[in-house]
């Protein structure tokens, strides 16, 4: 692919949020590398985007829960100098109590939501830093800051994405590499089904559900506006400022080197 063109790599691109990211980025002129397990859906989407926008689209059928498949995507990110954007969107939710969660289901969430995201970010980072230009978008969840009785593993993985991304943002603060954290609430995607999450979309409070199109459009508007942390459904921006300020104050309060008075014996 020509180095004069910019390429975006989108994981979980066969449906839902990932497919919409692919559509919106193609409309912005990005060539694409679409990554997901379902090759047939990727091929259909690739054909549509090429016809509609005249962009080059490569399809990579990969299961990012598997080391070998992650390695194939890593190789693309590390070697293709046209890659200017990585959208770490692929994710998995198995929503049930921990006692009812199999070891395999817990491992699959960690493998996809944590390990794959970390490895792909590490793979693309050297080229972006060397160029001093590029964008990484990490899709987390509002459950990164809130755990339900059925979301211990899922919330844990998304809390990792939040902490990982914030640390990376601090690391890259003096560079031209942008890193955006996106925290969507309930979004109308295939994750909400008996087969995937264990909870159908119909079981959710319907007024709380955002379309994938609205979610992605909000996130890209946030990116365009220079946001590092985007909450697509939160109207009051001050809520995040208050939360993050309280977090920083709590951390600062830990730096005393002595037990708090309530832990000292009289």
Keyword list:
266 residues, alpha/beta, Rossmann fold, two-stranded parallel sheet, 7 helices
The CATH class turns out to be: Alpha Beta
* Average of the residue pLDDT scores: 94
What does the radius of gyration come to? Answer: 19 Å
Task: Tell me the CATH superfamily.
Answer: NAD(P)-binding Rossmann-like Domain
As for the CATH topology, it is Rossmann fold
Descriptive notes:
The chain is of the alpha/beta class. It has a single domain (7-236), classed as 3-Layer(aba) Sandwich (Rossmann fold). Helices cover 44% and strands 15% of the residues. The chain contains 7 helices and 9 strands; from the N terminus they run E-H-E-H-E-H-E-H-E-H-E-E-E-H-E-H. It has helices at residues 16-27, 39-53, 67-79, 103-131, 152-171, 212-224, 238-253, and strands at 7-11, 31-36, 57-61, 83-88, 134-139, 177-182, 187-188, 210-211, 229-230. Strands 3-2-1-4-5-6-9 form a 7-stranded parallel β-sheet, sandwiched between helices. Helix 1 (16-27) links the parallel strand 1 (7-11) and strand 2 (31-36). Helix 1 packs parallel to helix 2 (39-53), helix 3 (67-79) packs parallel to helix 4 and helix 4 (103-131) packs parallel to helix 5. The chain starts with 6 loop residues before the first strand and ends in a 13-residue tail after the last helix. 36% of the residues are buried. The mean pLDDT is 94.
